[in-house]
């Protein structure tokens, strides 16, 4: 029986005030020792990297503002971090981004600039905004400051539960898993890092198998936060430090979300629930390579939900 340890996020501080709140562990069903952390504002792990990036900028640079392109969680996190520092945030958002995530950007004071859904459109518009404003680009994942910020999850997780032998992490562009893997393996080189990825956006699994970055002509998954492709900074980390990638169907994602709602009483978006879906999948349980996983940490990475889309998924 696996003893699955789940950690969302842990404590962050700004001017000695907590920005997210750690809650004691609790047990439920066959999944035990859940350590939950509630992010009262941004609702996702992205706030870690965004804070690290923005607060590391020299004053003169920061005053010109920051620019990014994002489908939602990084956009909201950067907007919030920028507002805390008192600098403008220019956010390029694809038109198919969930409304709840766009609303968060506006709520935190980010200036929304629309793009088409393609990465090419997002990047070209972000480049144009950079030229017009002189602001600093904070890439959602392919940025060393972002990667370092996300790595604080591992530092806090292994401080609280040093016996963990496996961490399961959502993968998209690779910023989260790169930070988690680098930090965790610097503490415990033997720890196993497994990525979880949706079947409809399995470019990372294909890249790992091919030994080079693979991009897809299109993606098809309910996990809107897992549709990006690996970058030149994140790919070498995924290649060398991520032990394997577990691919799951959207139907398994939805079941994992239902478990979070019905048993854990925790709101988790599809992208955030994929680690739990991976552990519950037959491919994980039947793989003898992973039989030695006895203390597993699953990172539930966000809870920003478009409830309309969620309801439609449940009704399929």
UniProtKB/TrEMBL annotation:
Cited Pfam families: PALP
GO annotation, biological process: D-serine biosynthetic process; L-serine metabolic process
CDD domains xrefs: Thr-dehyd
Molecular function via GO: ATP binding; D-serine ammonia-lyase activity; L-serine ammonia-lyase activity; magnesium ion binding; pyridoxal phosphate binding; serine racemase activity; threonine racemase activity
Limits of the Tryptophan synthase beta chain-like PALP domain: 42-301
Cofactor: pyridoxal 5'-phosphate
Keywords: Lyase, Pyridoxal phosphate
Organism superkingdom: Eukaryota
Enzyme Commission no: 4.3.1.18, 5.1.1.18
TM region(s), chain numbering: none
Record bears the keyword Hydrolase: no
Family, similarity comment: Belongs to the serine/threonine dehydratase family.
PANTHER family: SERINE / THREONINE RACEMASE FAMILY MEMBER, SERINE RACEMASE
Protein name in UniProt: Serine racemase
């Amino acid at each position: 029986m696996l003893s699955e340890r789940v950690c969302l996020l842990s404590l962050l501080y700004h001017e000695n005030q907590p920005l997210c709140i750690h809650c004691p562990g609790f047990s439920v069903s066959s999944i035990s020792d859940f350590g939950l952390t509630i992010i009262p504002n941004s609702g996702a792990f992205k706030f870690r990297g965004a804070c690290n990036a923005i607060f590391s900028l020299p004053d003169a640079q920061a005053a010109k503002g920051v620019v990014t392109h994002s489908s939602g969680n990084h956009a909201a996190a950067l907007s919030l971090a920028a507002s805390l520092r008192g600098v403008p945030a220019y956010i390029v958002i694809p038109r198919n981004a969930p409304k709840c995530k766009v609303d968060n950007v506006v709520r935190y004071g980010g200036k929304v600039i629309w793009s088409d859904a393609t990465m090419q459109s997002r990047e070209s518009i972000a480049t144009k905004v950079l030229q017009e404003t002189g602001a600093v680009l904070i890439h959602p994942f392919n940025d060393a400051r972002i990667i370092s910020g996300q790595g604080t999850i591992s530092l806090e997780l292994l401080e609280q539960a040093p016996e963990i032998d496996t961490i399961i992490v959502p993968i998209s562009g690779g910023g989260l898993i790169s930070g988690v893997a680098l930090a965790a393996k610097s503490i415990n080189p033997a720890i196993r890092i497994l990525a979880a990825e949706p079947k409809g956006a399995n470019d990372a699994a294909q890249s790992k198998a091919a030994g080079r970055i693979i991009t897809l002509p299109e993606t098809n998954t309910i996990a809107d936060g897992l549709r990006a492709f690996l970058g030149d900074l994140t790919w070498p980390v995924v290649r060398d430090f991520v032990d394997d990638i577990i691919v799951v169907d959207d139907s398994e994602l939805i079941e994992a979300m239902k478990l979070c709602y019905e048993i854990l009483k925790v709101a988790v978006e599809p992208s955030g629930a994929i680690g739990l879906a991976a552990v519950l999948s037959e491919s994980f349980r039947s793989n003898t390579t992973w039989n030695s996983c006895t203390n597993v940490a699953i990172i539930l990475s966000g809870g920003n939900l478009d409830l309309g889309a969620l309801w439609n998924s449940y009704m399929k």
